[in-house]
Amino acid sequence: MSQHTALVTGGTGGIGGAIVRDLARKGHRVATNYRDPDKADALRTALAAEGLDNVLLVPGDVSDHDSSAAMVAEVEAALGPIDILVNNAGITRDATFHKMSYQQWSEVIGTNLHACFNVTRPVIERMRERRWGRIVQISSVNGQKGQYGQANYAAAKAGIHGFTISLALENAKYGITVNTVSPGYVDTDMIKAVREDVREKIVAQIPLGRFGRPEEIAQAVAFLVSDDSSWITGSNLAINGGQYMGW
Ligand code: NDP
């Protein structure tokens, strides 16, 4: 298996942390961002305890254009050009639309969708020059089917699909594949924040009868960024316990 330089955004979180670990265990040179130095220290300590010493942590806010460019530059200066990019960082700011503030709208669009531009744009040119690359966006089942109280999040996550297929078209001839993974409900801090009675209602809608585990998303991402997925581009891999079975 070839070893590459990978940037995974949002590695201090549940799904991002699992992707970082999976790629690091496979021997890739992995980088991720942090905003909160305490969370970075906690991740460094956890990775060291797991024997993973090939992960670089750099500061970076993916909703900010300049900060993202600086993050990419720091990663490439330390580890070499980025071959694998996983746009994973994301947030929710839920409210029904008639009560949603502009701040709730713009923070979610900024972190989930503008971030795809902010982080991918400084990476893509050198990836095209090297004629090999893997890009994966983490979207959501709610970008496919919509969700009450999440007009901002569903809009951003659905936008990611359009971004993915356009980028896949533009870059196929340069050996770059671009795909989306759309998780259903995965047991991370994002879901732990949901009220217990709402969590129970969600689980009742999942045919496989439980929330997903971050590792179950990480394994799919690891496949999509590997040499084994060389003929998959512009696809959306739904991983949701059967909650949404559209085409
Ligand atoms: P977490 O809340 O556990 O982690 C989110 C990560 O994103 C954190 O590392 C967080 O860093 C980072 N982040 C947030 N905002 C920014 C920013 N502006 N700049 C840089 N990093 C930022 O969430 P999950 O692991 O659950 O979610 C990961 C992805 O999966 C998201 O895109 C989410 O929308 C998607 N998803 C999650 C589902 C779930 O059920 N959990 C379901 C479907 C999709 P910090 O610690 O600094 O906030």
Spell out the blueprint of helices and strands.
Layout: E1 5-8, H1 14-25, E2 29-34, H2 37-49, E3 55-59, H3 65-79, E4 84-87, H4 102-130, E5 133-138, H5 141-145, H6 151-171, E6 176-183, H7 189-192, H8 196-204, H9 214-224, E7 236-239
Parallel strand pairs: 1-2, 1-4, 2-3, 4-5, 5-6, 6-7
Helix pairs in contact: 1-9, 3-4, 4-6
The protein binds NADPH dihydro-nicotinamide-adenine-dinucleotide phosphate (NDP).
NADPH dihydro-nicotinamide-adenine-dinucleotide phosphate is lined by residues 9-10, 12-16, 33, 35-36, 39, 60-63, 88-91, 111, 138, 140, 183, 185-186, 188-191.
What does this structure look like?
One of its GO terms (cellular component) is cytoplasm. Belongs to the short-chain dehydrogenases/reductases (SDR) family. Keywords: Oxidoreductase. The chain has 247 residues and is an alpha/beta fold. The protein has a single domain, classed as Rossmann fold (3-Layer(aba) Sandwich). 48% of the residues lie in helices and 15% in strands. It has nine helices and seven strands, in the order E-H-E-H-E-H-E-H-E-H-H-E-H-H-H-E. Helix 1 (14-25) links the parallel strand 1 (5-8) and strand 2 (29-34).
